[in-house]
Design goal:
Layout (H helix, E strand, L loop, with lengths): L16 H11 L10 E3 H8 L3 H13 L3 E5 L4 E4 L14
Antiparallel strand pairs: 1-3, 2-3
Helix pairs in contact: 2-3
C-alpha cells in the first residue's frame, strides 16, 4: 500500500486506537524468554476486538511505515518491528 504523503512519517500522535491495540498485542512478552511479536491478521482481530476491516487497514498502514512486517505471506502473519511511542532508549512514552 502506498502512502498518500510519502514525506510524512508516522509518529505516536498519528496512532489510532486500533494501531495501539495491534502494537500492544505484538509487544506482549517482549523481553521475556519466549518468542513474541508475531501474529496473523485473524489473531489480531480476535485479540484486539476491533473489526476485521479496521485491523486489516491499519496493518497495511503500519507495514507501510515499517512498524510491522509480513513474515509469512500465505497466512498474512505479521511481526513487530518498531513502535513510534518508544523513545531512543526503548522506553514507552505512555
Amino acid at each position: 500500500m502506498a502512502l498518500d504523503h510519502e514525506d510524512e512519517i508516522m509518529d505516536a500522535d498519528d496512532l489510532t486506537k486500533t494501531d495501539r491495540a495491534i502494537l500492544d498485542f505484538l509487544k506482549q512478552g517482549r523481553g521475556g524468554d519466549g518468542p513474541w511479536g508475531i501474529a496473523t491478521k485473524g489473531r489480531l482481530v480476535d485479540e484486539t476486538g476491533f473489526s476485521r476491516n479496521s485491523v486489516y487497514n491499519r496493518l497495511e498502514i503500519l507495514e507501510a511505515n515499517d512498524h510491522v512486517r509480513v513474515v509469512h505471506e500465505p497466512t498474512r502473519e505479521f511481526a513487530f518491528v518498531s513502535d513510534p511511542r518508544d523513545d531512543e532508549d526503548g522506553e514507552s512514552d505512555e
